[in-house]
Amino acid sequence: MAKKPKKKPEKAQAAWLTSYADFITAMFGFFVILFALSEVDEAAFAEFAAAAARRPVIAPVTVGGAGQGISTMMGNGLIQLPDLSIALVDSPPGRGPGEGGSGSDRYPYEHPPPTEWELTIQALLTYFGEEGAVASGEIGVPGGIIIEFIEETDTILITFGDGMLFHSGSAAILPQTFEMLDYIAGHIALHPNLAVSVIGHTDNVPMRSVQFPNNYALSFGRAMNVGLYLIEEHGIPYYRVSFTGHGERFPVGDNNTSEGRALNRRVEIELVPMPLPATTDFD
Length: 283
Hints:
alpha/beta, CATH 3.30.1330.60, 5-stranded mixed β-sheet
């Protein structure tokens, strides 16, 4: 009986081809990345990489320039960006890239819009400087109103000179000054984080009356009446208003002259922005 011929075994599939194809694909991608990186402006990329390593980037970008700042920085290659926070700044006509702007005009808004507090400062300066509220005009002139902005503490200091709010020896507010106090109170009400300090001062001439036994009592009574006017007539929360009397302790003029003593008789309203308290439930 003839033997059946044996079947030849089929050739094994070349399994290594799969691994080889994966390797070639990976190498292709690697060289594409190298090629892309070679197209990047080295100085711009180094600056970008250093900034990204320090903290998230806030990149001002001019709208209307088609994002040229970013495309120039990134080149034409494929780069994996980190988390990037972008602030868009709308460029006005003639100030965008390619529109004649100089290097100093790269960011058109060098100063941000004024805050509400800055607007309040300007409004008070305008009111007391241009609306006739300043009786004598300049610092150091008795009987006037002085308004100062202390930049270091972001504070407004309004000083009412001798005779502006009170008659001599009295703590009763003169009716003709209510309008000025009302204007100040209106701006105080706009800022819930504003602390208000009212401070009374006198000269060194001894005084004694049924109501006020000395200068300290008189200066405190005047400051208290101004503070209570803001609280009771305008609803300013009482925890935001303080009043103090210093008597003759802090002169700004020479008490040996009548002009100096007049300068020392004054009431100050100090407006200071403060952090809001965790709760305002003080009632």
